[in-house]
Design a protein that fits this description.
By secondary structure, the chain is mainly beta. Helix content is 0%, strand content 26%. The protein contains no helices and six strands. Strands 1-6 form a two-stranded antiparallel ribbon. A hairpin with a 5-residue loop joins strand 3 and strand 4. The radius of gyration is 22 Å and the shape is rod-shaped. The C terminus is likely disordered.
């Protein structure tokens, strides 16, 4: 019997990143503001950590960037055994 949770694929969308796997985080140094302050001439100093973008790319730690997880119901096999159907 095919697993109805993963539709027989053996994998489900990651619940943590909702299948996006990569996302943006505010830069730790400039806190998303893109600049670290002003220089002596009053000009903004671009954050060297994020290069003035204000954010850094992060990878989901739950799925390690794959966007999917092994299905727990069928143990990644895609099929349910008779023993699991004891509901």
């Amino acid at each position: 019997m095919i697993c109805n949770l993963c539709d027989g694929w053996g994998e489900v969308q990651c619940w943590e990143c909702e299948g996006k796997s990569v996302f943006l985080l505010d830069c730790e140094n400039c806190h998303g503001k893109r600049f670290r302050g002003l220089d002596n001439d009053g000009e903004p100093i671009t954050c060297e950590t994020c290069g003035g973008h204000g954010s850094l790319e992060g990878v989901c730690e739950t799925c390690n960037g794959s966007s999917v997880l092994g299905c727990e119901r069928c143990d990644g096999g895609g099929n349910l055994t008779d023993a699991i159907e004891d509901d």
